[in-house]
Amino acid sequence: MNLAACYRLVAYYGWTDSIATHISARIPGEDAFLLNPYGLLFEEVTASNLVKIDLAGNILSPTEHSINPAGFVVHSAVHEARHDIGCVIHLHTDDGVAVSCLEEGLLPLNQTAMLLAHNIAYHDYEGVALDLDERKRLGSDLGLRQMMILRNHGTLTVGHNVAEAFLRMYLLERACSIQVRALSMGRPLKAVTAEAIERSAQTETALGGPIADVAWEAHKRLLNAERPDYRM
Do 118 and 201 meet the contact criterion of CB atoms below 8 Å apart? Predict the structure, then answer.
């Protein structure tokens, strides 16, 4: 149910790309995960229409829907490489894609970006993610980090659970939006010391666990008040 809630919150914040992009959650104790039905808007995703697939791409649950092939490649790559991961979020927002097109990627221009500075990996664009061989490179490039910018493509975050992955994506997307606005102002940028960046980055580990859970419950209260049908 948390995965369905995550889809609805991504839609609520305007982070969707029609029927593209995807969020997955690992089935505990199995080499399988839940993914959205291909062709549905995120506003239409519910707990009961999520599709269960294994790491080979086999659909394991009764469904009339297919899955996004590129979504399978991206998510199976991460779940196969990192058994500690319970949730993966991949988006194509305007600001996230814009930052992914920059050679320097995400810059430590503001507190939000500095929090994430040492936990972001990068993966070079290889075309639409339909090549199964790319999975090895995706997993290798992510390594042990919790966020990745897919160059010329979009953003990706992971977490032990939906709450952690969502909070990281919320912060990553916000950092990207702030960077796009700051660079568009055409004014000199205020540099921050390397020591301040380092101190800020060291606090990122606190974004997991209890803080993520508290933030997640707050977002779910908003969703339950306005769009509770995700639980169906």
Answer: yes
pLDDT of residue 206: 65
Other Cβ atoms less than 10 A from the Cβ of 128: the count is: 11
* Rg value, the chain, Cα: 17
Q: What is the pLDDT of residue 210?
A: 87
Beta strands 32-35; 22-26: pairing state: antiparallel
Strand arrangement, sheet containing 87-91: 51-54, 32-35, 22-26, 87-91, 154-159, 147-150, 120-123
Q: Is 20 helix (H, G, I), strand (E, B) or coil?
A: strand
pLDDT at residue 232 in the model = 81
Per DSSP, the three-state class of 122 is strand
From the list 24, 25, 17, the residue with the least C-alpha distance to 41 is 17
Do the Cβ atoms of 54 and 31 come closer than 8 Å?
yes
